[in-house]
């Protein structure tokens, strides 16, 4: 049973546009002063073209989904087993490392154990958890490998992630103001986001985000939901459910990795085993966070990843396909590289077919690329080093304001100060005591959890 009915995993192939969506003409207005970081107001194709493109992509989807069977089932079950076995082996080696008298063998065993545990957590997060919770294997009717029951090994509860990711991100991909993954409320990655002095520290904020990416993802839906349900009479009830679920999941993860498992190793093998287990767990979590962040950002914020300013109230499935293609970037690599990315290295294919088993993305990629070429759409792909470099350059580029942006910021200071003084936040409870030192999102979480 899920906590929130609205977070049910869905393919995101259709959705209802919000009532305040802006209707656009048939052709998009493309804005890109430097030739990089393009901004669109809608699809660059005509409606007839997008309908034709949509039919061709629908045909690929139907053929693949009709062919699913034993190969895909065995594949995801092998991934599931690999996650379990590598975790057991990694944790065993971490505990054993503390018993070795030779510092050389202790260090090498710790490194091997940490590497195996990192591998397990990455595979769990990317190829298993992400894809299972997208509903890619619901057709198997497996008791555990389905979107309604699976929960991954990190601090974000599955229902919260499915709401912010499966629904909001995959429906409103790269639409500023609707897709909250654009910058994660922290990093400026387009000129359409107003520059503020804190953006000068874009790269530093990015480093913090990367190191604690699971935490950012965990609190992301809370931050979104406070705004999304602001006018709803069920605000408090909804937020109470979400915050309690989040705090419970955080407690379970912290206790597991930083208390129970180190304590168990210490009781059975000694104090040094507790220390090697604790440090290995912490290192593996950071390694998983860094890898996940890098893959996600390379799939969304490269030089030619398009940002949209509006949603077409009459957006068709074909229009939606085009937006997914132009807003996504692929990463080239080996078979094992693709597996470790959860096949999000095929980000374009994932965004157009989010509920298709990710192991099939490599098969259809040439067909999708040919369709893009046919309709003169950018199929953004490159090696990891190229895409990652572009991401960092983009983040750095938007940390620096233009003369006009700096002037606009200065002119807005007095007006913003007055507005802040007059504005009241009905959803924010007064902070007192030690809570006043916490970031607003943490104060919201604690206040709604009561």
Mean pLDDT: 88
SS-derived structural category:
mainly alpha
Give the SSE string.
EEHHHHHHHHEHEHHHEHHH
Give start-end ranges of low-pLDDT stretches: 1-26
Apparent shape:
globular
Number of helices: 15
Over all CA atoms, what is the radius of gyration? 23 Å
Termini Cα gap? 23 Å
Strands of the widest sheet, in order across it, are: 1-2-3
Molecular structure report:
- This protein has 450 residues and is an all-alpha fold.
- Strand 1 (30-31) and strand 2 form a beta hairpin.
- It has helices at 47-67, 70-97, 103-132, 158-171, 202-211, 213-228, 235-269, 271-300, 317-326, 335-340, 347-352, 361-374, 384-397, 403-422, 440-448, and strands at residues 30-31, 39-40, 307-308, 330-332, 381-383.
List keywords for this structure.
450 residues, mainly alpha, 3-stranded mixed β-sheet, two-stranded parallel sheet, 15 helices, 5 strands, globular
Provide a compact summary of the structure.
The chain has helices at 47-67, 70-97, 103-132, 158-171, 202-211, 213-228, 235-269, 271-300, 317-326, 335-340, 347-352, 361-374, 384-397, 403-422, 440-448, and strands at 30-31, 39-40, 307-308, 330-332, 381-383. It is mostly helical and 450 residues long. β1 (30-31) and β2 (39-40) form a beta hairpin.
List the helices and strands and how they pair.
Blueprint: E1 30-31, E2 39-40, H1 47-67, H2 70-97, H3 103-132, H4 158-171, H5 202-211, H6 213-228, H7 235-269, H8 271-300, E3 307-308, H9 317-326, E4 330-332, H10 335-340, H11 347-352, H12 361-374, E5 381-383, H13 384-397, H14 403-422, H15 440-448
Parallel strand pairs: 2-3, 4-5
Antiparallel strand pairs: 1-2
